[in-house]
Amino acid sequence: MKVVDFSHAHCKRVEGLLDAYVSGELLVETAQDVERHAADCETCGALLENLEGLRRAVRRAALAEAVPPGLDDRVRRRVERDASGARTRRFWLAAVAALVLSFGAGWMASLAFTGHPPHRYIANEYAIHQMLRGVDGVFRLGLGTHAHCAYYRPEWKDELPAEEIVRELGEYAPLSDVVREEAPEGFELLVAHRCDYLGHEYLHFALKGDGGLISLILTTPQDGDAYAEEFAVRTAGGFEAVGFSAAGYVGFVVSDLGDDGNLRMARAFRGRVGDVLRGIEG
Amino acid sequence: MFGSSAAYRDFEATALPHLPALHRSARRLLGDGADAEDVVQDVYLRAWRSFRSFERGTNCRAWLFRILFNCVTDRRKKRSREMVADDSEEILERQAATAPQWDRLTDAEILAALDALPDGMREVVVLADVEELSYKEIASVLEIRLGTVMSRLSRGRALLRTRLTESGTPRDIAEATR
Question: Which of A160, A249, A273, B78 is packed most tightly, with the most Cβ within 10 A?
């Protein structure tokens, strides 16, 4: 009687499955077949152990290499610059479209682009331009944002719900607590939002009270944005802005309080705002 | 900055966790640390610009790796690096080998051997054994057939195993594959 030896054939079959087995690509039943055979066959068992050892060693060696420090920050900054540039381009495209279509049948298209009738848009932009005449450098950002939001986003509510702040500001929501706690008596926080203007992104907090209007504006500096003094002061259009730096950000307190009110608030805000921002940014 | 748009925050949460995996692979594929960093930044810029077309809930990691390999291809073209031809069968012959002492090999030795593999094999070994992508994902990322994935993986592992036994050194891999 002829004896047929299946063992070699089985070894060849299992050997051909070992790569897929260690990669987890086999069906359960096939994988179990490989395991049973490898447990009984010294040669195939050694091959399997060898292959698993190789895979573990390669993975271990590759994972041991660390990501260069700061790479995630560099990636974020590069993407954010691109995103900011795209928003600025969209803003100016919308502005040009509004101007071109500001008369006759273009009226409705202008509303769609800017949310405002063209004559109102032009009037607002002119008013902002007049206000910022003579205002230099980084202060154009603070005063410009304050005026921009005042004209285009007059969302002065009687109350700003906490959930709306969290929804709008996300991880930066704790800054609203600082603003409330350091605000002068009689002023309530009515605006806490993100906005963009002149290619910068901002956090904008606005307080309203009998004494007037106060804005705290925070943004990250880009090329050329800097203050020469610890607390820099500028005035424009009846408003005063005090600028400061905190935790790598530039901040502005803008109001019509007078009597060094802005400076007192800037001093109060700077330390606490810096602590919160450092805690968020890590 | 503040990632003011919801889209950016969504992108950050979805895509940035994969940065370490993308950097690891870029290092192995390009060999140069500075090139790898540049390519990772390129990957995220391209990913951000096409994020609207990414279908939420689908495999973001595979999508990013697809972008990575496109960027790597572009970078290699600039460097005029040629694909090394597949190896001779003599090198790839399976052995009932004496198992090397995997624990005694240093990470540097293993990575040198990995970096010396031909591009096509190295790509598959990195995706399969380091990043643990499935065969189907690898085929999609590299735009090759499933059978090609399996073949390159098997030969790549065999080549690594052969050269990392006590009888071989990583340098022999480069010499053997000329």
Answer: A273
Q: Which of B50, B35, B4, B28 is nearest to B119 (CA)?
A: B28
Cβ atoms < 10 Å from Cβ of A43 = 12
Containing H/E element for B168? none
Print the SS3 string covering B109-166: HHHHHHHCCCHHHHHHHHHHHHCCCCHHHHHHHHCCCHHHHHHHHHHHHHHHHHHHCC
CA A193 to chain centre: 13
Cα separation values, B95 from A43, A68, A178, B85, B165, Å: 10, 39, 69, 22, 11
Long-range Cβ pairs for the range B171-175 (8 Å, 24+): B171/B116, B173/B113, B173/B116, B173/B117, B174/B116
Q: How close does chain B come to A132, measured CA to CA in Å?
A: 25
User: What is the side-by-side strand order in the sheet with A212-219?
Assistant: A188-197, A200-209, A212-219, A249-255, A239-246, A232-236
d(CA A93, CA A117): 16
Q: How many residues does chain A have?
A: 282
pLDDT per position as a tens digit, A24-62:
999 999 999 999 999 999 999 999 999 999 999 999 999
Could you report the per-residue pLDDT of A184-231, keeping only the tens digit for each?
A: 888 888 888 887 776 778 888 888 887 678 888 888 776 555 555 667
Is B111 an interface residue toward A (CB < 8 Å)? yes
Side chain identity at residue B124, one-letter code: V
Cross-chain CB nearest to B40 (options A75, A172, A201): A75
| CB contact (8 A) between residue B160 and residue A46 | no
CB pairs under 8 A between A and B: 129
The position carrying tokens 């954010």 is: A80
Q: How far apart are the first and last CA of chain B?
A: 49
For the stretch B36-75, pLDDT in tens is 999 999 999 999 988 888 888 889 999 999 999 999 988 8
Give the H/E segment covering residue A67.
Answer: none
